[in-house]
């Protein structure tokens, strides 16, 4: 079979169970595609061919013995922010270019336990700070729809790998949009779960009160399969919540849209930088949902203007604290010939961190400093609470809230946006993390340059199943998620 990379997770699972192909064949097929195409896309930082084949053989044995998990033998790529025992975990940084984790992140361990095969680790913005993946120490990744464009970020490698058919599914993390925005830029489905649904253990911390891992795939159904593996309480993460996990696959049903009340925030569709094509495609998708039985309800989210400033105080504040551990002493980059301990700290950190990371450490340290803590950090936390209340009020009247995932489609690589221009591009995704809510991106068409546009649906706490079901039903009635990126078409 030559088109194994075109099969959905369900088809892969069935094909493996029925021995139409083996996990080794499937894994070799993906490794070959990576070897052939990834020099152009640059989605992988590390390809773990040898380990992947060993995992594939183990999955084949389990499949043969008839005691394999539904996803056994299916390959995936992990964002290079998840610690992988024995394999480099760089977080896209020079600081961790030499870091080999002694343990697996819980997400990685769960994927392994289910028999998923790790193809490798994929590129990302340095320490997940960015929206283009260009801040990676390993260089930019190309958008499979147009290689001179960015795949989005920070989980840009995950999105590019799936969109180019170099992995059927991938893990990502979302602190302020890093699953939804690259999914939007690359025409994929990506779910940011409720804060606490997926363990953060072994996921390199950016902003701990906002970080959350989740699945990136072609369809909601594929995402549901991966969620079934990675969701759940973890005693090793005190912020993971001990709450029953849904069967996301079994819950995908055909009735999610009928009678659904979708909130349309007035403020979101009046944002200055909202691209006309993005707006049009999102409105068309909402019309489609309306035809399928949903009711559109105009709502107010009055705190919209506060999203960017609030996030860009809280996230850097937490980052400045989290990143203080990289001091050149125990692990990570260490400068050459330090004069003394201070010189070691200073030079290791200034040589090991890139410009955007240093900028955020400076902003965060300032916001947390004695004289400014109340004026900036505490104030931002208060505004954060108001943003959350704004959503809770809206959910009294609607089931989900619709928005674009990003105001534009993918930028050109090297567009060189100023930091504030870049931050403003996150307007639609940040509030979800500040409130801890789940949200999903679904592809809903293309702009005039044939670049993908994404619809974001934001749900109430623990509504992952509902979000996946809505998008699943939408995808049963449309074919945007089946469109293949240019580089994938060229290498069909
Ligand atoms: N673009 C946002 C930032 O730079 C969000 C990144 C993320 O979700 N990791 O912080």
Mean of pLDDT: 97
Uncertain runs: none
- The tally of strands reads 11
Strand order of the largest sheet: 4-6-5-10-11-9-7-8
What portion of residues is helical? 25-40%
The N- and C-terminal alpha carbons lie at a distance of 12 Å
Q: Provide the gyration radius in Å.
A: 21 Å
Structural class: alpha/beta
The shape is globular
Strand content: 5-15%
Bound molecules: glutamine
- Written as H for each helix and E for each strand, in order along the chain, the element string is HHEHEHEHEHEEHEHEHHHHEHHEEHH
**Quick one: biggest sheet?**
8 strands, mixed
Number of helices: 16
General description of the model:
This protein is of the alpha/beta class and 492 residues long. It is built from 16 helices and eleven strands. The chain has an eight-stranded mixed sheet with strand order 4-6-5-10-11-9-7-8, sandwiched between helices. Strands 1-3-2 form a three-stranded mixed sheet, with helices on both faces. Helix 5 packs parallel to helix 6 and helix 9 crosses helix 12. It is globular, with a radius of gyration of 21 Å. The model has no long low-confidence stretch (mean pLDDT 97). The site of glutamine has 13 residues, from loops.
